[in-house]
């Protein structure tokens, strides 16, 4: 079958097949090598990042490298984004193969990875094949690259280009290889192992490197940075035109070395590993390992001069490189096009609903249903069609782990309730529920194979309240396994991708809820926060959220991360939407003693909407302090934009007050592990759970490989009554300290002037994001976090859009206040919003055209995969558990 015929036949695949599970028999894998370095490969198994890039290495010399960004002249929706969805299969001990090719605007893309694990030459090889499946020529631009380090120009973890084959520190078409390392002096030790990329035959060869580019953003229009954090992201670009049916191949090698020491000897001494990796790169450039490639692959090589790969016919001069039995002059004229696996089935491109839900708030949906302009069934069908189109498939957002099979039946019941005269703020409104909230009708997985298929006997309290109010529980939103990461949402069922920039992280564990809301795959939803997992994904998606005061909303039926620190809250498109959900979900719950102790019914407003007044900031004093607006990566674009956005508080009638710093909280020295305690309570409340000891959950070998504990649970264990009382006292005292700080904040120290208290404040402003967001395939920090210190006290904070940063990425501000100032903070944010109007909508999931179809799509959950066999010791500790990512979510 021709490639054109293959493409046309796949277009006719049934909808059920289109949305079926992505099969894989493997798990996320580390390839071990002889020199102590290991490669963590983003393959098609959990967490299904499936880019074929390197998540991390033992020395963390690579932190998301080897990815592809491709731009084609046909201009498809995901043009230029990080390519994924290869369903890469691991063949131990060293090979990965594409099982379903990815389609990008008529170009089928496949990857094959191979690793050489010798102690003297540790390298990987990426062979990428591109085939034109259409009837017209297509121009193709390919960037191969990623992240080599992390930090600012002066940081010890920046890994910049420092060596090239042409002898300088600037990569260009004249180079066959380039090397990146920390430290550029010849004798400087590398804080992370050096790495080198072998690019192919250099200029003047016609297929040589075209240019280098900024792999983090706009790689096909933006030159690479040479200083600062962005200098860690380099893409190496090639360009070619494919005739109909034609295929071309790009082959790159990446070599890595171990960490050097300032006191080491031999190859571990300063410069020793750089020298070794330089030698490996130079050797591969002059004699690449291609003996296992097929003749069609060799003949289709774009970035290597295949004339040098010819075994000579006597008495010809012996070339530098030989491959036994291959002669380019004789073999290539008759060679077939390179073979690739079949394309993945296409996702739907139309909707069977006449109602457009894109960008609609809960308030708008409710008004349109009340006016008879639409129904819950039309709205729900629209969301289901959009999930089928944008959440599944090669470039899907992966924001859902499960979609309710009875969603349309729920909508029908809601329409009947409305017809009978019923009315609630969320009646008939489809919502996404983070997959750590109990749902009696769908599995609750916590993003992990540990809970695969687990169905609780009842709903979490907040879910039950929403269901009673007539909301459509549309599905379970994906999350970081166990809600642990504050940087990514890497579930065993598929990592979540950013709604605004689909190559980047969605941030923190509530990424699924935020992306589903921002991409109009739900009207809003429930998430949770331990450290940043409400405010961070909301900021990345230009949304609104409240981390309420401890005890304001029930956590009953919510899988824990850190007992008492966790907060179960909502993420929405507007503050009125947030108020509508809070009206249903907050208040005293007998199942959650913290809400009883807080007297939540008395502390929450009768109607949260009454706090939302455009004059709420009139006469208020809003503080901020400069040290909170400092990005750890050394960038300033985001924080500068946020500082400028503080002016809108003044425009809304407030006084902006610079203060000297944050609160001094009491020392938290309560013994015991809050994660253990939370699981103990959850187990007691769930008799059908297949685990009876928190250690079975915390140390399960079914967890993602880089989250496992090789030697079992080694934490502090259960808290006794005294420790529990001590921890509760700490949180109460911490809230008192926050109030005292707001009552008498420290004045900024200005040289030559006396310090004086600036007076009591109504709230303090903080950033949410402090930097651009990083790509979604790395194992290091994805952004500069803006954690308010008040979060550890359980005091409230509201996060809300403040426009975009200097690169056009959404950004939020946060306001923090005294315990149970929640409604006031919502009012201040509403008044700010009335002036700033900082919310922006994404364009990455446009409205679908209508096509009559009475049958809703069948949306199957992503296929869970088996964990790696054996203990996690097969992955080195430094790669398996990078401490920077393990910060609480």
Q: Could you please describe the fold and organization of this structure?
A:
With 889 residues, this protein is of the alpha+beta class. The chain has 21 helices and 27 strands. The chain has an eleven-stranded mixed sheet, sandwiched between helices. Strands 5, 6, 7, 8, 9, 11, 12, 13 and 16 form a nine-stranded antiparallel sheet that branches. Strand 8 (107-118) and strand 9 (121-132) form a beta hairpin. Helix 7 runs antiparallel to helix 8.
Task: Give a quick rundown of the structure.
The protein has 889 residues and is an alpha+beta fold. Strand 8 and strand 9 (121-132) form a beta hairpin.
Task: Please outline the helices and strands.
Blueprint: H1 3-10, H2 15-18, E1 29-32, E2 38-41, E3 54-57, E4 65-72, E5 89-91, E6 95-97, E7 102-104, E8 107-118, E9 121-132, E10 138-147, E11 160-164, E12 177-181, E13 195-198, E14 211-214, E15 233-242, E16 247-256, H3 272-286, H4 295-299, H5 328-331, H6 362-370, H7 376-390, E17 400-403, H8 407-419, E18 430-434, H9 461-468, E19 472-477, H10 511-518, E20 524-529, H11 535-540, E21 544-547, E22 567-572, H12 575-585, H13 593-598, H14 600-603, E23 621-624, H15 637-645, H16 647-651, E24 655-658, H17 674-685, H18 694-698, H19 721-743, E25 763-767, E26 797-804, E27 810-816, H20 822-836, H21 877-880
Helix pairs in contact: 7-8
